[in-house]
Design brief:
This protein is α/β, with parallel strands linked by helices. It contains 13 helices and 17 strands. An eleven-stranded mixed β-sheet has the order 1-15-14-13-12-8-11-10-9-16-17, sandwiched between helices. Strand 16 and strand 17 form a beta hairpin. The protein starts with a helix and ends with a strand.
Length: about 450
């Protein structure tokens, strides 16, 4: 079985091939890590960060492992409503004496904890973030930032009121690939943006959130009523617990799970930090008819200050993760492991094919005059050279977690703060509201709410 390093090398090679490196005029550049530099020597006791984690499920276990892979990071407590994840946290940390609890407030009360990592279902995000800020704790919260639009603004206010660092976990913002795309766009590589296309497709039960519940899950080892929070009270249901993304009561569907990554990366790449003006969404439940009420196919057209942004998300056909930025000077085609830059001159390099409508003598005269007034010689038309940049996986958590921990230590502003995270989340909520209302929705910044077109 291929190990992780081999897998990434293979995927990088595949990305280069897909980007056209093996075409005659393409060159490849492998990006070296820039920024987010981590010390190469052991970290002293005074530079260590002691954190607690809330939620040690599928996402949280990955966040915990990635955080512990960074120098100077120590997990000193873990909270989860399911006892099985207490054992998991102890296994990941290698600490059989790690404090574990069902009540995350016990971690917030500890004076020796510097910050919190949170990976809980969407409908718990606001409560956990606000409580952490009120307890004087900086917090890293998984994406999307909020479950509803009003919640996002409550979270911003809590962060500002308590002068807390809040970072949202859409990790592409901290990747070298997004950094390079940002640099290229602002360096004028494609000119002013005219349109963006974002797409991502999966094709498997796991990709569609049909996760197997823990085999021993029961009301005896899970605080079920607490987990339900303020959603409708229903009898214990292991599938609701494991597959919460399928239901609107708990999650935000493909928009909050998948699109938020693409939107966050787009906002960073283009230097935008705003909600879209409008959204119109179409989709439905076409394949995964398992009782869910969130669509398994969703298409969205956003208006960002006049720029159209088209998004396609699906759980029935696997398609590459892709962000395509279009401008008059060319294309930036970004994916998980690379960027293909295709410059375009935007001018004719040969006589117009409209001359086929001319009589032969006129056509000959037009062609002769065209070459006489242009520097292009027949048969010497210029070739366009693509450049393919490859780098580390844009979904690597470690650089994003490192920026959070560095902000905790330095108190310097971070990029994906509560305001940025809220703008990305609003786009997700607008997409979902348009889907359920079956009409276009508009963002009203004055009232911080949506209205029908």
């Amino acid at each position: 079985m291929m190990d992780e390093l081999t897998r990434r090398k293979f995927m990088q090679a595949s990305a280069i091939a897909a980007g056209g490196l093996f075409a005659t005029n393409a060159k490849a550049i492998i990006l070296e890590p820039q920024g987010h530099s981590m010390p190469g020597k052991p970290v002293g006791p005074n530079d260590r960060i002691r954190f607690g984690i809330i939620g040690v499920g599928m996402e949280g276990s990955g966040v915990l492992g990635s955080a512990l892979a960074l120098p100077g990071m120590e997990c000193v407590g873990a909270a989860d409503l399911y006892d099985g994840r207490h054992a998991l946290a102890k296994q990941i940390t290698g600490n059989p004496n790690l404090q574990t609890t069902r009540d995350y407030r016990e971690l917030l009360d500890r004076k020796d904890i510097d910050c919190i990592l949170a990976a809980v279902p969407d409908f718990w995000h606001k409560q956990v973030v606000v409580d952490a800020c009120e307890a004087g704790k900086d917090i890293y919260c998984e994406k999307p930032m909020s479950h509803t639009i009003p919640e996002g603004f409550e979270m911003i206010q809590a962060a500002e009121r308590n002068n807390r660092i809040v970072q949202i976990g859409a990790q592409r913002v901290s990747s070298m690939l997004c950094g390079k795309a940002h640099e290229m766009y602002h360096g004028g590589a494609i000119g002013d943006i005219t349109m963006v296309e974002l797409s991502l497709g999966r094709n498997s039960p796991t990709g569609a959130w049909e996760y197997p519940p823990p085999l021993d899950l029961s009301p005896s080892n899970l605080s079920w009523d607490t987990w339900l929070k303020d959603t409708p009270k229903i009898p214990f249901n292991p599938y609701r617990f494991a597959r919460w993304r399928c239901w609107r009561d708990y999650g935000t569907g493909v928009a909050g799970d998948l699109m938020v990554h693409l939107i966050s990366a787009m906002l960073f790449t283009l230097g935008w930090n705003e909600a879209p003006r409008s959204a119109v969404s179409l989709g439905g439940i076409y394949r995964w008819k398992d009782g869910r009420d969130m669509p398994d196919l969703q298409t969205v057209l956003f208006d960002y200050h006049g720029i159209p942004v088209y998004v396609r998300l699906g759980l029935s056909s696997r398609t590459p993760e892709r962000a395509l930025y279009m401008g008059p000077k060319g294309l930036l085609d970004t994916n998980e492991f690379g960027i293909t830059y295709s410059p375009q001159s935007g001018v004719n390099t040969s006589p117009s094919y409209y001359d086929s409508s001319f009589p032969q003598k006129m056509r000959e005269e037009y062609v002769r005059e065209w070459y006489a007034t242009h520097s292009v010689q027949p048969g010497k038309e210029p070739l366009t050279e693509q450049t393919v940049y490859t780098g580390n996986d844009w979904d690597d958590l470690k650089p994003h977690l490192w920026t959070f921990f560095e902000a905790v230590k330095s108190r310097k502003p971070n990029v994906e703060n509560a305001v940025f995270g809220n703008h990305a989340a609003i786009a997700c909520h607008m997409a979902n509201e348009s889907y359920f209302r079956r009409k276009q929705v508009l963002w009203d910044a004055a009232t911080q709410s949506l209205k029908d077109a």
